[in-house]
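Q: Given only this backbone (146 positions), what sequence would you predict?
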């Protein structure tokens, strides 16, 4: 029973981290908003298209590609598939356990194939990410209707 409560605490801690990231994003959006022109002065624009969004893309703002980014990206996708991160467009949490399992399995493959070639920090990161994801997946799969 103690192990279960420890696993739940780890999931909660990770969820807190995601909430903090969302709050930081909201803060950045709020900071960018005053720089925009007032709505009355803005011309009426059509809905953004794919070409519009690519024109606004600034590759200089991307973080450098590294192992930690790869692990974070896959872990985030797995957490989203478990419904722990809401969909960015709808705001709804979608539970897709087969997709979550696939992402977790991909991280497991990366862990296995890179064993012995990682720095201690990288090895610890993937180990903790997999542990949190597997515990979360197990909890979600127990709640799923059968």
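A: Predicted residues:
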């Amino acid at each position: 029973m103690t192990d279960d409560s420890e696993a739940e605490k780890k999931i909660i801690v990770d969820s807190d981290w995601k909430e903090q990231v969302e709050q930081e994003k909201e803060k950045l959006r709020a900071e960018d908003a005053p720089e925009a022109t007032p709505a009355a002065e803005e011309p009426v624009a059509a809905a953004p298209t794919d070409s519009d969004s690519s024109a606004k893309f600034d590759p200089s703002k991307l973080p450098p590609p590294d192992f930690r980014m790869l692990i974070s990206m896959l872990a985030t996708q797995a957490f989203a598939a478990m419904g722990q991160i809401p969909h960015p467009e709808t705001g709804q949490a979608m539970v897709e356990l087969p997709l979550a399992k696939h992402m977790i399995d991909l991280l497991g493959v990366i862990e296995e194939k890179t064993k012995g070639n990682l720095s201690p920090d990288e090895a610890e990161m993937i180990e903790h990410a997999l542990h949190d994801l597997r515990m979360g997946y197990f909890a979600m799969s127990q709640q799923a209707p059968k």
